[in-house]
Each structure stands twice: as structure tokens, then as C-alpha cells.
Amino acid sequence: MINVTIVKVLEFIFYPLIAFVIGIILMGLFRKIMARIQRRYGPPLLQPLIDIIRFFSQRTVSHGKIFSFGVILALAGSLVVLLFIPFGKICPLCGSGDLLLILYLMLFTPISIALSGGEGANPNISIGVSRKLMLSLGYEVPFLMIILSVMSFYKTTSLVEIIKYQQNYHWAIFNFPLIIPGIAYILILPAMMGVRPFDVASAPQEIASGPVVEYGGKFLGLNHIEHAIHMFIGIALFIDLFLGGGPNIGLFLVEMFIIFFIAVFINAMFPRYRTDQAIKYLWRWPSILAFIGLVLVRIHVKF
Amino acid sequence: MNTETLLKFILIVSFGGAFLTYILGKISRVLREIFAVLTGISVVVFSLMLYGKTGTLIYAKNFLGFSLLVSINNLSWLFLITLSVVSFLSVVFSLSYIRGHERTDFYYLMLLLVNAGMAGVVLSADLISFYIFWEIMSWSTFLLISYNRGPALSAGMKYIIMSVVGSAAMMFGIISIYTTYGTLIISEISIQRLSLPPNYILLLFILFSIAFGIKNAFWPFHIWLPPAHSEAPSPFSAVLSGILIKMGTYGFLLFMYVIFGMKVFLELGPSFFSFHNILCLLGAITVVIPTFTALLQYDAKKLLAWHSIGQIGYIIIGISLGTSLSVAGGIFHFVNHATFKALLFLTVGAVEYRTGGVRDLNSLGGLIKKMPITFIGALIGALGIIGVPLTNGFVSKWMIYKALILKGNTFLAFAALIGTWGTLLSFYKFLHNIFLGQLSEKYKNIKKAPFCMQFPIIIYSLIIILFGILPGIVLKVINTILTSFGFESLNVTIWGIASESGILNTINIFTAVVIVVIAVWIISRLGAKTRLVAQDDNYAAGSYIPKEKYNFTAAFYKPMTRIIGPVLKDIVNNFYLILGRGTVAAGNGIRKVYTGDIGYYVIYIILFLAVLILIKVGFKL
């Protein structure tokens, strides 16, 4: 009994750390690979970590209580979501909620960033936030259909159950009706991770990085940590839903890096969409595929 | 005190208090305000004392040959306590809001009369009193919607015309029930419910659905709601949106599960097009279309009004899906919607009060620095209506989603889920355009809201958070309602529920969030110190920038509204307009014949006789 408790507590402490480290490595790799594709040498792998340490030592400007608290809440929101996402066998809080809860817990971070930026009162922030929200409505349409088809295929809303089914039979992506939502998910994954061609919200050349433009010092540092965790969550959720959740941590990491490389290559290849182009894209092919998948799953479940 | 006395007290206090407030208002302002608050709080206290009791009171023995009864059970108790709290807080809010307006006595009379009428509706145990209280409520609502004159007059007119149509349908239904069952007492009808063919019951359901649907304002009966909610005085908008439209929900619950029972209700109509499936479908349409229409609004109260319709959709889906999880979710969402929507209307009211009636989302901004409590209230209300975890809105919506998924209604579930994202977008716009962004020069000297306005805002905010963390407080009451309907009771604990697959444990989530926030806060304390800097200082690096030019509010979601705007034309409103125009044209046509001039009628008679003679002569030939 005591052993179980100790393991649980260790999970609570080390899982966020692991996710942070992996997220930082991903961020470093991102810059390195981009540099190599553009025939540059690129920064060292741990540059993001060095940046964060530097940010924390710099003096910071704040515009008010919500401005400061929003940044903290955003990171906290991401960390709480993390505790609900299974990573191999590790999942500290899975007993307290299901996939629907994760879906709504994921709102904490964007809302906090948006509120914090709102008090920053910079028009670039407002434009960035409004773009981010529009983009999220754009990818939520196919995403919700994808999640619904997975949930109704396995007849459960619990992520742990979904993973268990996959490990006992096939991975979801190799199941006939579920492969279609799986493809749709791959099509919207860059939008969910916010990489090009869907980086309308940050768009450094247009609106000076949008929501994060007023942050400096430790707030920017917290924001980078949040970004690292977010990167981890985005890919981990896909692996849990479609790639069998990784029977062990090694396979999980391999899957994670493969997906990540695909995202980086897409990022390197495409120029940025306008917001309305992005929405139109998301509401066309991914949505149609997700809809067909949902209909097929419905038929499959019925007969 | 026993139940009968309490029921008598509630009726006497709520109606008597309303009129007494009016009379005392003629004498002095202070007396009127004290009395209005006293009436409100005593109804709350009496309702609280009725908790868990059941009983019936005959308050009129021989009214046109009927005895009129009121009774209390768990369902009506839940509605009664919600409506009395919302009314009381609206009365408190009105103390500052309405002070200095003209016809204040009339305002309080009507506000208290609406509340009394609603209390009567939920307590009545026979259909005659139900109808009488329903009409008292509808007509005083009409007078209050039109209180502000101007555009409010046409809004009120739109409301009362639709309401009268609903009442006529209800009257027809009640007469029909009386002729077939021979009684109008609800408990006696429900005993005989199985003796009649289902097609007749379907007819009754359609008739009453028109009445309740119009009050409940779901699609396609919603057109009266946006103008009425936005033109009414804000504290009354809170009552209107918070509970008055939910009287329709009460009516539905009464007919579905109390009078006819779930067995009859769920098997009404041909299998796929059965009555409850169609109601669910209408609910889904009600979630999606009005929620996205709200995205296009730039009047703060109109935005809230369209969301009222959208949230009604969730309630309708919940109560008409007919599983215990969904019905519980629907009823719980009714309670929650009453809290967060009333809160949101009150915050807009406070902003309106301080800015001199401005509620145009494009011209406000930056009020967070001036009205912090109001901002916190609006934030919590918005989180509640979006359904972010740890607010009450999440728990009830979660139950509805879950019920839909478990029952295999994936497309309805998709409608319900996507509605949440529409809500998120429009409420960020709402918060941002009123409270965030840059403060306009003309609002530099705004003061924070007065205490009478802050008090209800704080109370509602606390309720939203409390029910979000400990939903069991309400769900335990709802569980008793479920068992009285004949459903299985849910496995509810005070901090969450466990359903067939997957559980929700809100206290664990709350603890996790608190611990993580503290941890992150400690991490952020490790960094260097922060310094508070005025926004324009940082933005312009100290150099001069023209003020008021840097607020991004108008066309907030332009790339999106350009895509969805053309799809969301208000077809239903146009349909009603065409219907109205057609009726007027037909009336004009008839008026050409029935001119009212006696000479014409003489000519008609002579012509008619001539035709008769002609026929007679023609046959002889």
C-alpha cells in the first residue's frame, strides 16, 4: 500500500519533468532540423533550455494582475492536462476523468493566455488571440468528429480503456473504419501544433508573435515551458488515440519522434496560410474525411 | 410549520408583497425598496424550509366548479428554490439599477408579480391554476419587457403575440384533457394516463409543446427572445433568461415524466420519428445555429440572448433523450444556466449602469482596471457557460455529452460539443471587448459598481464555483427527482459521479489544479522581480502614440464571420415575417368585403337574395 502511494507521488513529480525534458529536446530539434533544411548550422540542441534559464534571470515587465496570473495559469493548465494523458503505463490522474474532461481541460491554457494577453492591451495580441481562437474552431470541427468516432467505436469515453483495447487487438489506425479518422487527424495535426502553414496566431513577421509579444523575462520563460509541454501533449494524445498508446515508453518515444519529424518537414515546406484559407482547408478535406469516418463507424457499430 | 402553511405563506407573501410594495412605493422610496427586498428574501426562506417536504394545499374550493390546488414535490422544489434565489438577487441588483428611473413602483410591482406567477406555476397541482399563473407570468413579463419604451415596445409586442399563440394552444389542450379525463388535477390525470390511445396523447403533446416551446424559445420558436432579452432592463433580463424561459422546461418535465410518464413519452410516435427523437433533433439545431449566430452580434445583451437559446438546446437534448444520466444533466444544466446567465446579464447591467447605457461591444474596452469585481464575475460566468472544468456548467454538459455518446447518438453529441467552441469564441469576444484591451479616454473616470450590484455578482460567482467543485449538492436532489420519475438513480457522491464507463471526480481535479498552480507560482517566484508598467509605455517604448487608436475590437472574427455569416441568415424570422405579412394582407382583403358600412351589407343581402331568386327562376325554366 505504501509502495503504491510512493510510486503515485513519484509519478506526479517526475511525469511533468519527463514531459518538459522531451518537449525541450523537441523544441531544440525543431530549430536544428529547420536550420539543416535551410543549409544553416543551427543552434545547439539545448538552446531552448539555455534561453529559459536566461529569461528567468532577466527583469520582467507586467501590466496587471490578470496579465501575470494568466501566464502562471496557462502553464498550470497544461501541466494538469498532462496528468490526465497516459504515457506508457504512467498516468497519475486517469482515475478522475475521461477523454471528455481532457478535451475541456485543454481550454484552460488558451483561455488563460488570451485573458493575460487581453490585459496586455496590445492590438497585436488581440489579433493573435482572435486568430488562434478562429483556427481552433477550425480544427475542432474535424477533431471532435475524430474523437467521437474513436469513442463510439470502442464504446467508452475513457482514454485508458481505449488504449487497453488497442493493445489487446489492433492499433486504432490499422482498424478499417478508424483509419479514415486517423488520416484526418494527421491532416489537422500541424494546425493543432501551430506549425506552418497554420502559424497564423504567432505569425512573427506580421503581428510580432501575436499573443506572446508583451511577455519578457520570466513570463516568456514560463511561456516557453508551456510550449514544450504543449508539444508533448499534442503528439502524445495522437499516439494514445491511434497508435496504441505505446506498449512501453521506448516505443512511445519512437512514435513521438516520427510524428514530430513529419510535422517539422511540413513546417519547412509550406508558406503560411491566411486565417480564412486555413479555416477553409480545415473545414474541407479533414472534415469530410472525419465525417465519412464517423458515418462508417456508426454503421460498423450498428451491424 | 407544516407544509400547507408554508405553501399558503409563499403564495400570500409573493403576491401580497408585490402589491404592498407598489402601494408603499407611493409613500416613500426607502419603504418600497425595503419591502421589495423583504418579499424576495422571505420567499427564499420559505422555499428553503420546504426542502424535502411533500404536500398539497387546496386554496380555492369552488372556482367555476373546480378546486384549485398547490403542491410541493422534489421537482417543483428545485425550480422554486432556483427561481426565488434568482428573483431575490435581481431585486437586490435593481435597487441601484432602477433608482432614478420613472415608474419605479410599476417596475417593482411587475418584477415581483412575475416571480409570484412563476412560483405559482411550479407549485400548481391542477391545470387551471397552472394556466392562471402562467398567464399572470406572461402578461407581467410583457409589461416589463416594454418598460423602456422605444424599441422595447416592438420587442414586447413580438413576445406577447407568440406567447398568446402558445397560451391558446395550451387552453385548447387543457379543455381537451378535461373533456376526456373529466378532471384537471395533475395526480388524477396521471392515474388514468394509460387508458387512452397514444395518438391522442401525441396530439396533446404537440399542443403543449407549442406553448412550452414558445416560452422555452428553442428553434424554431426563438424569434421573440433576442429582442426581448436585449431590450428589457438588465436585472429583469437575468430573471427572463435565468428562469422565466425555463418555465417551459418545467412544463415539458411535468408532461413528459410526471403526467404521462417516461414509458408513454418515450414510445410516442413512429420509431425513428418518435416525439422524443424529434425534440432531441430540435435541441441539437437549437444548440448550433443560435450559438454561431451569437458570434455575429456586437450588442452585448443580444449576444447573451442568442446564447440563452443555445443553452436551452442542451437542456432540451438532456431532458428529452430519456436516459437517467441525460435527464439529470438536463435538469442540472437548468440550475446552472440560471446561475451563470443571470450573472452575465447582471455584469452587463453593471457596465451599462456605469457607462450610461453603453452595451455596444465595439465601443467599450479596458474596463478591468475600473470594475475588477464585475470583470471577475463576467469571467466566472463566461467560464461556466463555456463549460470549463471546475465550473458547474462543465458537470452538467459533461453528463449530457456522456449520455449522448453512451446512447450512440454521435451526431447529436457532435452538435453539443461544437456548440461549446462557438460559445468559447463569442465569450472571449465578450470579455475582451468590454473588459480587456485599452481603456477608452471617455471612461477614464468610471467608478466601480455599487455594492447592491456587486453583491449578487459575488453570490452567483461563488455558487458557480461551488457547484463546479461539489456538484453532488444539487445532484443529490436531482437523484430523488429521477427516482420519482421512475429512472434508475445515479451513483452520485458529493464531489462527482460515476457512470457506466468512466468517472468524474471534481474534487481531485480541483486539488490537482490548486497544487499545480501553487507549484508554478513558486517557480515563477524564483525568477527576477517584476515591475508594473503602463501598457503604452512598453508598446511605444516611451514615445508618444495617439490614444484610442490601438484597440482591436470591431470585426473581431472577420475571417470566420465572412465564411459562416451567409449561412446563418435568420430564415425562421423571415418565415414568421412572411406569415405575419400574409395574415395582414388576408385581413385587408377581408376588410374590403366587411367594410363596416351598413350600406354594403344591405347590398350583400340584396345580391344574395338576387342570386337565390336567379337560381329559383333558373330551375323553373
Helix and strand arrangement:
The complex is a heterodimer of chains A (303) and B (621).
Chain A: H1 2-37, H2 47-57, E1 60-62, H3 65-84, H4 99-105, H5 108-120, H6 123-154, H7 159-168, H8 176-193, H9 204-207, H10 217-242, H11 249-269, H12 275-302
Chain B: H1 3-27, H2 29-49, E1 55-63, E2 66-72, H3 74-97, H4 104-123, H5 127-145, H6 151-181, H7 186-191, H8 198-216, H9 225-231, H10 234-244, H11 246-259, H12 261-266, H13 275-294, H14 300-321, H15 324-355, H16 372-386, H17 392-407, H18 410-435, H19 451-469, H20 472-485, E3 491-493, E4 496-498, E5 503-505, H21 506-526, E6 530-532, H22 535-539, H23 558-564, H24 571-593, H25 598-620
Antiparallel strand pairs in B: 1-2, 3-4, 4-5
Helix pairs in contact in B: 1-2, 1-4, 2-3, 3-4, 3-10, 3-15, 3-19, 4-5, 5-6, 6-8, 6-9, 8-11, 9-10, 9-14, 10-15, 11-14, 13-14, 13-18, 14-15, 14-17, 14-18, 15-16, 15-17, 15-19, 15-20, 16-18, 16-19, 17-18, 17-19
As laid out across the biggest beta sheet of chain B, the strand order is 3-4-5
User: Count of DSSP helices of chain A?
Assistant: 12
The proportion of residues forming helix of chain A, as a percent range, comes to over 70%
Radius of gyration of chain A: 19 Å
End-to-end separation of chain A in angstroms reads 45 Å
Which descriptors apply to this entry?
heterodimer, A: 303 residues, mainly alpha, 12 helices, B: 621 residues, 3-stranded antiparallel β-sheet, two-stranded antiparallel ribbon, 25 helices, 5% strand
